[in-house]
Amino acid sequence: MSETKITTSRKPWLTMLLPSLIGILMFMTPIAYEDGITIPVAILAKMIQQQASGFLIEAVVAIVCLSAILSSLATLGNIKALSNGLAGKLFHTTPAWMAIRVLGAILICATYFKLGPEAIHSDVTGYLVLGELLPVLLSVFILAGLMLPLLLNFGLLEFFGTLLTKIMRPVFRLPGRAAIDCFASWLGDGSVGILMTSKQYQGGHYTQREAAIIGTTFSAVSITFSLVVIAQVKLEHMFIPFYLTVALAGIVAAIIVPRLPPLCWKLNQRMPGVSDPHDDEDNLHGRSVFSVGLERALKQAGRQPGAKAAVKEGIENVLDMLLGILPVVMAIGTVALIIAEHTPVFNYLGMPFIPLLELLQIPEAEAASATIVVGFADMFLPAILAVSIESDMTRFVIAALSVTQLIYMSEVGALVLGSKIPVNLLELFVIFILRTLVTLPVIALMAHWIF
Predict the structure, then answer these.
(1) CA distance 158 to 425
(2) Which of 143, 146, 248, 311 is spaced 20 to 30 Å from 305 by Cα?
(3) Domain spans of the chain?
(4) Measured between alpha carbons, how far is 177 from 152 in angstroms, rounded to an integer?
């Protein structure tokens, strides 16, 4: 390899720059919006929600039911038209995943038509998922699915992956391109990061271990939602120290947790049946990272077949996410919230944390313990429960911990399970507990320093 390999032809440069710059603008450019910071994709998604508010919920119900019906026919009925090509990819699945899609359809119908026990369709269980979460995911999936090829296919990841690999490899044992997933989550929404990770895993750019680590560690909570959480516990005036605490605890968890089971046990192999694209980010051949990154970006852009293929891929992304992930989020998210709201399971699971909270000198340790594990059901539940706690320090710790725990089944956990990322439900819970144990002392130390 030599410096002269960087082409001066205009076409590869335009093919790389135009889509990549649009991708950066849409997914990674922070914009002040409604007293917060977000990204254009999130703004457009909110506009879709506002303009289509009259039928978004009905659209979600139809999509989830359609997914369940066609998945059942494809998986059990062995219908040829549903087993090949795009239809096969969308609907032909394992009996277990088919059952989850069917459960999602049952729960969404029960919620929409208010059938069965109120525990299923109440405002804090089924309707929270159907009315508040799924319409947001629907609009985000449509926009992100169509536009993800702009970030993934035209050289941006090759360029930044090469630039950042000297940091990401030694510190986090990940390719440099993983940082882009984190940026998109941090500025926009964690679901965007998970979608990016899943697509790159399916493309062979990540191994099973790397995809599992990135999906459970780098799909960070957005700044906007972090502001909502700290406001819920009446400490919005402390947002800057709060977010600095979250960032520090998140970095510590990203360094430690991937080195522990179950993540360290994941195979360093590509997705079965997917070939290695030979990213070769670590080998610079004695050249500067900038020149090598630029050359790799131009080569990647030159391999793209054109705008039509990118649009087709974007449409397939949208269909895959809508039909494959929305039913899973409805099923798992609703069940998790029912358990959290109507059983003492999470209270019992939180009791072992009382001695640790007392050791860390957190006031009202017993009340705080009830909020720790409930975050596995939904990230916002700990902040809601913390309102009754008098200590500002304790509410600060609970809010920061709920954000850094990262995995909650009403959205992120269900998204991971519904994607191709190789992590199961038990592993997600173990990772959640590990993140809690790692980040809690960091947050407590910062809380004692701040208060």
Answers:
(1) 32
(2) 143
(3) 8-339
(4) 10
